[in-house]
Amino acid sequence: MSDNPQGVFIDDVEFPFDDSTSILEFSNKSLGEKIIPTLCDDDNLKPYGACRVCSVEVQHTEDGTKRTVASCHTPINPGMRIYTNSDSIKTLRKNIVELVLSDHPPECLTCEVNGNCELQDVAASVDSIRERELQKALSQLGLKDKKRIKIIEDLTKSVADSIISVPTQAPEQESK
Amino acid sequence: MLSTLTLDFESFDEGGFLLGHASFVCIPRSFSAVEYAKHLFAFTAHESCGKCFPCRLGATRGKEMLESALEKDQKFSEELINDLLELMEVGSLCALGGGLPLAIKNLLEHCYDEFKPLMEK
Q1: What is the pLDDT of residues A30-88, one digit of tens each?
Q2: Quick one: which H or E segment has residue A67?
Q3: Which chain A residues have a beta carbon less than 8 Å from that of B46?
Q4: Which residues does B contribute to its contact with A (CB < 8 Å)?
Q5: Distance CA A116, CA B69 (A)
Q6: What is the pTM of this model?
Q7: Tens digits of residue pLDDT in A162-176
Q8: Which residue segment(s) compose the domain that A61 sits in?
Q9: Taking a C-beta distance cutoff of 8 angstroms, is the pair A61, A47 a contact?
Q10: Which residues in chain B have their CB less than 8 angstroms from residue A173's CB?
Q11: Closest in A68, A88, A102 to B57, CB measured
Q12: Of A69, A85, A101, which marks where a domain is finished?
């Protein structure tokens, strides 16, 4: 590594600095798409930093402290050292995906986007997802976060079965 | 530890505390530490803006885990709650979700006896 780097290091490999605005954009241009997985990144939207699956470790100098940041909305600078696949990042990604799955309907195989699903792709790209107690217990208990759901649409139901069902119990937070 | 704690950032940092608002919280000795941890998760879940996944989902899951343990006698995994706290601390977008784990970690460390019967390895 040069003493006064003008490039950017991704996993210890130097790449020339360009006009990219974010770490994710730079990584996608330099290494190809999907090196850093994402869930909320979309070309039609501004970087939002919501899912945190695109988190990477960043060092601003060779001896600097490593900080974990979301790559989609963190500006890229010359001399940055970016670590996309360290142990802590792999663990973080796996835990985020497990957390997302804990709030996701379990009927993956009968879902209409099965096989063409961003979440499935990301879940497959992280280390083996364990069937966590979190997901199992909460889905069994029906304790998933349904407070924000006002209308549940089920197109497999006939009109007689009531296409739209409305939760009968008032949301806890809104009852106050 | 408290007897050697001095009112400065370094001392608090060494002791695993944070000097700032709500650094000291006084609760009655008879009040359950697990109930208090549940309250902290519930508070964060309620206050969360919902933008980032670790805070929105993590605080809700944490609240549900402790709620199930207290009300439904359903034990929760020690590894799971530690993973959840680490995830929220490192992954949250702002200090609401990122700050909660320190308080819960301190409760787990200093009031472990109260959590132990509710956890499984």
Answers
A1: 887 678 999 999 889 999 899 999 999 999 888 889 999 999 999 999 999 999 999 99
A2: strand A67-70
A3: 173
A4: 46, 51-54, 57-58, 60-61, 64-65, 68, 72, 74, 76-77, 80, 83-84, 86-87, 90-93
A5: 38
A6: 0.79
A7: 444 455 555 555 444
A8: 8-85
A9: no
A10: 46
A11: A102
A12: A85
Please report which helix (H) or strand (E) contains residue A69, including its range. Answer: strand A67-70
Burial of A147 (0-12, 13-18, 19+ CB in 10 A): middle
In a mutagenesis test of the B interface, which of A41, A46, A52, A58 is the best target, namely the one with the most B β-carbons within 10 Å? Answer: A52
- A126 & A73 share domain: no
Domains of chain B (ranges, CATH numbers): 33-120 (1.20.1440.230)
The answer to whether the CB atoms of A96 and B53 lie below 8 A apart is: yes
The pLDDT of residue A159: 53
Q: Per the structure, how many domains does chain A have?
A: 2
Domain boundary among A85, A104, A130: A85
**In the predicted model, is pLDDT for residue B78 greater than 80?**
yes
Q: Is residue B88 within 8 Å of residue B25, measured between CB atoms?
A: no
Instruction: Give the residue among A46, A48, A26, A45 at the shortest CA–CA distance from A36.
Output: A26
